[in-house]
Design brief:
about 15% strand; globular; alpha+beta; five-stranded parallel sheet; seven-stranded mixed sheet
């Protein structure tokens, strides 16, 4: 199912070892970088495995570290991006270990779930991501790991994608399957409102067709140019989204309707570039979906798949530091040696960790810490947090040496959210996805991004999102009941305040947001008795997001996406100063949201493989099934001209010493 497994040809390795000098000269010629193909499930998997069971053990049968072991990779964090990067690398022959500080129940990071038992039965909540968009990206991801998406996930289309509730009592059922109803509703708000909406979506789709392949996937497409040039006739992508929406609609309600999604990228419609209209094109042109069993099903399936590929995933394992040293192996002069973890207690998790790694990779670092060595480290923790807390300049460096970590204190961050998870004994008149928009739209956004003072939540003017997953997946709650997740955007934590000051402000914010949501919802016909119907609630505040997931400032969407933090200006997959350190996640390129993180995982894995091949070369492989091996450019056994990775790295290490 995963292609033929390959093993290193032992005689070739022996030949390499006999003449290291000649092979060092030609190792870099193994695979020209222009010929490196993307990681793909369609090709037989090139796996760097042990030379043989005999070569990997001593004469007494004990496990040893043969020089032909797979290159070692540690992934810090078992979020969606970390799991997918780990799985892709495992299929390319890397020995991958994932270290996650939280329990297995929290795999997937912010793609989480909570189960609540009540007198009425069990309620299931998505605690973070709830909009399943761009299924083609999920299909490519699962396929790259050897599994068809439809075999792993039961996807249902959400129709209508949204219900919009305005503060004056107006409601819009944004159905795309009943165009007559949609036209009736939009034309009531503005003359020719439906035709203007469809023209807007056409222009937005031009931004999607151009923006996704060129600026998200980095796969330049000439076919997208015509659509983009056509869209320029009606929408300028770099002006503010609100300004461009005003060119289509005069009614503020319709302007709000097509711009509220800017929150997903951590921006206000008044500052977000209009190119983010591609979000509406994705939702209304492609559709919104939902995985039966909850969004967390995606994370659980990915965990199952990567484990089947040989990835070792350890939970309840806190990484304290990424250990960095000076080296001549990296052009930048720095390289990660591994990670420092809290020394495991004598529990099952500790036993699993120690049993899965050879002793040569573990080093006692005192009473409370242990080092795990690695050839490559991938950060799937929140990147601004990791740069500040996990990277420390080696003490051996002179005082004038630059810091190895990047300073993200002056970068723009997305908002945080107050998340309310409510179990109701009655069913509420809601759709699957619901947006409550303020009548003071500009004011509702202003305080969220106010950086001039200690910004407080504006309880008199705010927007919020309501998720009722049982509309698509009845298994989410008992029949006749409702499971409701409410997300209220609030300012990110102000780092100029003390922890006590932050907590007092957050407590007031949670109280004001909760009361404001109840007041707005009970004004909707059919929800007058919402307070008395409430069976159970739990809340996540900005402080909770920071504590649970190490999110700097509690910013749930990570770094924001203004123009100065887009594309090449956003942190890329490879660290700029540490040669073997990489990153994947919402704050890295291409950006936040599960589909973009999946694209980022693909790009990070491909960059690692490309760097690995360019730096260390590769080896000849023998197919276990056919006995046939890869042939070099000369048509013969390519490994007779190159050093296997650990062999070559050993020579470089000796040169450094």
């Amino acid at each position: 199912m995963f292609g033929a497994t390959r093993r290193l040809h032992q005689s070739s390795v022996n030949e390499v070892a006999r003449e290291p000098a000649d092979h060092l000269k030609t190792a870099s010629a193994f695979i020209p970088t222009s010929q490196i193909s993307p990681i793909s499930h369609r090709h037989a998997v090139s796996r760097l495995t042990r030379t043989s069971q005999r070569a990997g053990r001593s004469k007494h049968g004990a496990k040893s570290d043969a020089r032909t072991d797979k290159p070692k990779c540690i992934v810090v964090g078992a979020g969606i991006g970390g799991l997918v990067t780990a799985g892709r690398l495992a299929r390319e022959g890397f020995d991958v270990t994932v270290l996650e500080k939280n329990s297995e129940a929290m795999v997937g990071g912010r793609v989480g779930e909570e189960l609540v038992e009540t007198s009425k039965g069990r309620f299931r909540f998505d605690t973070g991501a709830s909009l399943f968009l761009m299924p083609e990206i999920f299909e490519e991801t699962f396929s790259s790991l050897g599994v068809a998406l439809h075999d792993a996930i039961d996807l249902r289309k959400v129709e209508p994608p949204y219900m919009i509730f305005y503060e004056d009592g107006t409601a819009l059922n944004l159905t795309m399957s009943n165009r007559a109803l949609l036209k009736e509703q939009l034309d009531q708000l503005e003359d020719d409102g439906y035709d203007k909406f469809m023209r807007y979506l056409d222009a937005a789709d031009g931004n999607r067709l151009f923006g996704v392949p060129n600026f998200i996937q980095f796969e330049f497409s000439f076919d997208s140019i015509n659509a983009f040039l056509k869209s320029l006739l009606s929408m300028w992508p770099l002006s503010s989204h609100h300004t461009e929406a005003g060119r289509f609609f005069s009614n503020p309600k319709l302007q709000a309707l097509v711009t509220f999604q800017d929150l997903y990228v951590g921006l206000s419609p008044y500052s977000a570039p209009a190119v983010f209209s591609l979000l509406q094109a994705i939702e209304f042109k492609q559709g919104v979906f939902y995985p039966v069993g909850g969004y967390h099903t995606v994370a659980k399936k990915l965990l199952q798949i990567v484990r089947s590929l040989g990835v070792k995933v350890h939970f309840n394992t806190n990484v304290k530091e990424i250990l960095v040293s000076r080296t001549l192996l990296s052009p930048s002069g720095y390289e990660a040696e591994g990670v420092l973890i809290d020394k495991p207690g004598r529990d099952d998790e500790a036993a699993k960790l120690e049993a899965s790694l050879p002793r040569s990779r573990l080093r006692d670092m005192g009473k409370t810490a242990m080092m795990v060595s690695s050839d490559i480290v991938v950060v799937n923790a929140d990147l601004p947090f990791a740069e500040e807390h996990l990277l420390k300049t080696p003490p051996a460096l002179p005082s004038f040496a630059p810091s190895i970590g990047r300073d993200f204190s002056q970068w723009d961050y997305s908002t945080s959210v107050v998340a309310l998870y409510w179990s109701f004994k009655d069913r509420l008149p809601l759709n699957h996805h619901n947006i409550f928009l303020s009548s003071e739209y500009r004011t509702s956004w202003a305080s969220l991004f106010d950086t001039t003072s200690n910004a407080a939540f504006n309880a008199s003017a705010f927007n919020f999102y309501v998720h009722a997953s049982s509309r698509t997946d009845p298994s989410a709650c008992p029949e006749g009941c409702d499971n409701i997740m409410v997300l209220v955007p609030v300012p990110a934590l102000d780092e100029r305040m003390s922890a006590d000051e932050q907590q007092r402000l957050v407590d007031r914010t949670v109280s004001d947001a909760r009361e404001g949501v109840l007041r707005r919802m009970e004004a909707v016909p059919g929800m007058e008795n919402i307070r008395s119907s409430l069976l159970h609630e739990f809340v996540r505040s900005p402080m909770d997001w920071k504590r649970l997931y190490n999110l700097r400032r509690g910013a749930v969407f990570g770094l924001a996406h203004p123009l100065r933090q887009l594309v090449i200006f956003r942190p890329g997959p490879k660290h700029p100063t540490i040669g073997n350190l990489y990153a994947v996640g919402a704050s890295a390129r291409p950006g936040n949201g599960v589909p973009l993180v999946l694209v980022g995982a693909k790009q990070t894995a491909e960059r690692i493989v490309k760097d690995f091949r360019r730096r260390f070369g590769s080896a000849r492989f023998i197919d276990d099934d056919t006995g046939e091996g890869d042939k070099g450019e000369d048509g013969g056994g390519a490994a007779t001209r190159r050093l296997f990775w650990h062999e070559r790295r050993g020579k470089e290490v000796e040169a450094v010493k």
